[in-house]
Amino acid sequence: MSDSAGETVIQVRGLVNAFGGTVIHDRVDLDVKRGEVMAVVGGSGAGKSVLMRSIVGLNKPEAGSVRVFGEETRGLDGEALRELQLRWGVLFQDGALFSSMTVAENIQVPMRRYTKMNQSLMDELAAMKIALVGLPEDTGGKFPSELSGGMRKRAGLARALALEPELVFLDEPTAGLDPISAAHFDQLVRDLQKSLDLTVFMVTHDIDTLIATADRIAVLVEKKIRIGTIESLRRDPNPWIHEYFSGPRGRAALGA
Question: DSSP of 37-104, one letter per residue?
């Protein structure tokens, strides 16, 4: 962790999300510290991705406060929002790459949106990001349809890192990957987190990913959130949490 370890990068207080009259989050609180990997898990419909989208401003909560780098994100717009967005990157499910663009062009999207770099510099930086995430040099000229699922995830991660953010959001980064590709991606995330001193907010359902990457885990259950380490959460009496960490899959992953 950096010298600023312990600083709160994301602060959520009293968050309420509801859709069609159904409450998904009921006064949820969450702190994410600088330099940590915070993983968010929960059952289907628990609102894992909704929580992430609420933090980055893509979903408007019914109530509550969301602060990122000390800035209240609700109602933020214009130059203030732009400055905040420059400090984070987002990897959506399956990479969410633009199919009509090459990988290099996809990586350059945030550069075009937020900076005034010339094309030569953008090409150079895109090549650097491609190498950073472990993709072959010639990947930049390919289209997403020409890539495997694992390569698309890496390309999406390269785009998330395009502007050298301090904070990265990952939405189900290993979903759909075979176990070997998933394990390699987990290691990549951890390596990049350490080498780039990133704070990582990661939505996942994969207990192997938790073991490989997470410093702390936030479990969305019964519209609330419980936070801990794998060790502490294995002792939690909640039935869903117990089944997740101590059921057959959990025991197999943890070697217990």
Answer: EEEEEE-TTS-HHHHHHHHHTSS--SEEEEEETTEE-TT--HHHHHHHHTTEEEE-GGG---TTS-HH
Task: Report d(CA 226, CA 36) in Å as an integer.
Answer: 17
The residue among 23, 3, 8 whose CA lies nearest residue 222 is 23
Q: With residue 8 as reference, give the H or E element that holds it.
A: strand 8-19
CA 32-132-169 angle, to 5 degrees, is 25
pLDDT digits (tens, 9 = 90+) for 95-113: 689 999 999 999 999 999 8
Asked whether the predicted pLDDT for residue 2 surpasses 50, the reply is no
Nearest CA to 17 out of 247, 223, 219, 225 is that of 223
Cα gap 19→46, rounded to integer Å: 12
Count of all residues that appear for the chain in the document:
256
pTM confidence score: 0.92
